[in-house]
Amino acid sequence: MARAGRAPWLTLQRREAIEAWLFVSPTLIGFLIFFLGPLIAVVFYSVSEWNLLSGEQVFVGMANYHDALRENPDFWHVIRNSVIFAIGLVPLNMALALTLALALSRPFRGVVFFRTVFFAPVVTSAVAWAIVWKFLLQGEGGTVNALLGYVGIDGPNWLREPDWAMAAVIVTRVIKMVGLNMILYIAALQAIPRDYEEAARLEGASGWQIFRMVTWPLLAPATLIIMVITTIGSFKVFDHIYLMTGGGPENGTLVLAYYIYEQAFEFFNVGYASALAMIMFVIVLALTIVQLILRQKGAA
Amino acid sequence: MTSLSLKNLRKSFGTAEIIKGIDLDIADGEFVAFVGPSGCGKSTLLRLISGLEYITAGDLFIGERRMNDVQASRRGVAMVFQSYALYPHLTVQENMGFGLKVRKVPAAEREARVREAAGTLKLEGLLDRYPRQLSGGQRQRVAIGRAIVADPDVFLFDEPLSNLDAELRVHMRSEIAALHARLGSTMIYVTHDQIEAMTLADRIVVLRDGVIEQVGTPRELYTRPAKLFVAQFIGSPRMNVLPVERVAQGLPAGVPAGASQVGMRPEHLRLVAPEAGMLGGKITVSEYTGAASMLHVALDHGETVLVVNNDEGPRPGERIGLTIDPRDLHFFDDAGDRRSFD
């Protein structure tokens, strides 16, 4: 028995603190090894010139960043492509997602079937998706051009012409990923009490007025989040480009994430690729911070 | 003139019939309350009148016009929702003016009408606030204000006070009564709270399982309930119901033909000396509520009845007798219909 005046070391508070640390430790260890470690390593690589073959590492300061931002015209071309990709993809994706969500947020016979149809591409293998679309988008004998032919349009060789290739990767990416935003919009729509719509209807508002004056403003927080995550996702797009075009033709679809991959693993410019990765990290971080600020403003 | 007339009104959702033939006439300027337990169809009936639900069969007349196939917004009704349904992204002024805006009423007239309604409800100082900055009672007033701005022929209230605390509920009840007195409009008020219905309504419609059990003034429902269900639903605490044999020997005039059950309101039962009353029993629980005590009395025959006792009285465990003025007895037959001597 412990005597009065001398508290045992293992108090209830200490014991619960230890338990809590044990519970978070698996995630924490994973975070340190697989996220923070590599991040620090990338910072380190980005200020080095590293020869993978000899294993020789030389500190070069900001030279890699200087290369990207000042010397190498490819970098700005890649940024421009990434921005075009985002500007093309984000509004198209969101408009389509919202339209589908409005149609599929209310129960009707077969609604689950339609939701599944539009969501299925999200969970489909990116490789299978790319193979099928490359086939459909062939210049000669492709299904898309065959269908266009029926209405008298002579379709281009989609993935082989720089401008059309960008449009094609954007559209196929939207069709693949729109289901995710559709689900987010459906959730947001279902969270809006029906009373608002009924009150507006009783007051004489048309369907379009209800959407414009009630539903759309109430969706603003969801729209903001969806916009930011879609934009970030579009800046990080890699697999889709890798599988569809490999950045071509004529670097027409060479976007930032793919460019980093190319520099690191095809040209072995690890230092330069690391500097690019840091730049991408800063871009994504900035977008995330903008989102947080806007969300706090919206909540106030 | 805005009277309403419901003729054999029916509503089904799929195969489930929720409203099973309602016939009801509501006079111009009348305040009518729909009451009944959850699921009795009172809210559905209100939504049929408002136009938020399609009518399956029967006729709905508002004024002289058949409204079955008229859009909700053209029926001349305004509704106050239980949730208030105030648009969170609009100010009080914008909320109240919403209906006028969608109907393209010029901004100047819109503002004048909103200000007038706001004046009526003492909301002038709140016009630039958002709903989240208002208290529950203020939100409720804004919701009513929005209905007033619409200048409807008929006001519909769907359990408007059930989200307020008890004190505020009593206060808002009196405001709604005052509003009715001032506007003189026809009002239909759905509630599950019989006190609200009793205090506000000219007439109460008691609903159960999609049919009307009884329509009458609050006093009629309390003093002459037509059904056992109404007798037990109106009045608090609930009416005691016993087999008619328990009281038969104490009644020189006997009981009405066909009567099998007798109802006695707890506030009508009086305590007398043991063995002196119509009924005898033992007090099991005594709940002191301030103004009165609620006694639970286990009768010698096995049933338990509630008695309201205004005096400082016997304690649990004591034996007592109970008596009642025969005029305060309510007789019902096996089907639950009222039976009387005449």
Fold and architecture overview:
The complex is a heterodimer of chains A (about 300) and B (about 350). Chain A is an all-alpha fold. Chain A folds into 2 domains: about 35 residues, no CATH class; about 230 residues, Orthogonal Bundle (MetI-like fold), CATH 1.10.3720.10. Helices cover about 75% and strands about 5% of the residues of chain A. Chain A has 13 helices and 2 strands. In chain A, a hairpin with a 4-residue loop joins strand 1 and strand 2. In chain A, helix 12 packs antiparallel against helix 13. Chain A is flat and about 70 Å long. Chain A starts with 11 loop residues before the first helix and ends with a helix. The mean pLDDT of chain A is about 90. By secondary structure, chain B is of the alpha+beta class. Chain B has 2 domains: about 230 residues, Rossmann fold (3-Layer(aba) Sandwich); about 80 residues, OB fold (Dihydrolipoamide Acetyltransferase, E2P). In chain B, about 25% of the residues lie in helices and about 30% in strands. Chain B contains 9 helices and 19 strands. A 6-stranded mixed sheet of chain B has the order 6-7-8-3-9-10, with helices on both faces. A 5-stranded antiparallel sheet of chain B has the order 13-17-14-15-16, with no helix packed on it. In chain B, strand 1 and strand 2 form a beta hairpin. In chain B, helix 2 crosses helix 3, helix 2 runs parallel beside helix 4 and helix 3 packs across helix 4. The mean pLDDT of chain B is about 90. The interface between A and B is medium-sized, with 18 and 22 residues.
Protein traits:
heterodimer; A: 300 residues; mainly alpha; MetI-like fold; two-stranded antiparallel ribbon; 13 helices; 2 strands; 3% strand; B: 342 residues; OB fold (Dihydrolipoamide Acetyltransferase, E2P); 2 domains; six-stranded mixed beta sheet; five-stranded antiparallel beta sheet; 19 strands; 31% strand
In short:
The complex is a heterodimer of chains A (300) and B (342). With 300 residues, chain A is an all-alpha fold.
